[in-house]
């Protein structure tokens, strides 16, 4: 998909700062359990391995972030952003496990379907001040963006 998912569920998803106006551009933020279930039929939440394949294809973690980031919508300096991949990654921020929000305009964080132990899962992170694709394990209660991958 070339945009953040904006499918509304009854629970486990939030508009950034609970403002519906943010959904049209940035999509919803989903906890991990919900993220695994929201992709439409014929699509799925990418695994950590599938994110790694994409990152490698784009030149590795040090260059891939810029190729994934939109050239607009980020705080300055939006370092390395070219959107060569057509992914159009946006900085939708995230929702903390305690219900607060942060990093809007600064980071775009995307769930993977792969767990890191019982309490966490892998995510990919793009940042306004770097061209890297960062890989972190985070708690499943956090709210991050979702991109779905077509089934083959």
Rg, Cα atoms, Å: 14 Å
Low-confidence regions: none
**Total DSSP E strands:** 9
Specify the overall morphology.
globular
Query: What is the H/E string?
Result: EHEHEHHEEEEEE
Largest sheet properties = 3 strands, antiparallel
Tally of separate domains: 1
Beta strand % = 25-35%
Q: Tell me the strand order in the biggest sheet.
A: 6-7-8
* Spatial separation of the terminal alpha carbons: 14 Å
What class, by secondary structure content?
alpha+beta
Mean pLDDT: 96
Work out the helicity level: 10-25%
List the quaternary state of the chains.
single chain
Total number of helical segments? 4
Could you describe the 3D structure shown?
This protein has a 3-stranded antiparallel sheet, covered by helices on one side. Helix 3 (48-57) packs across helix 4. It has 152 residues and is α+β, with helices and mostly antiparallel strands. The chain contains 4 helices and 9 strands; from the N terminus they run βαβαβααββββββ. It has one domain (13-150).
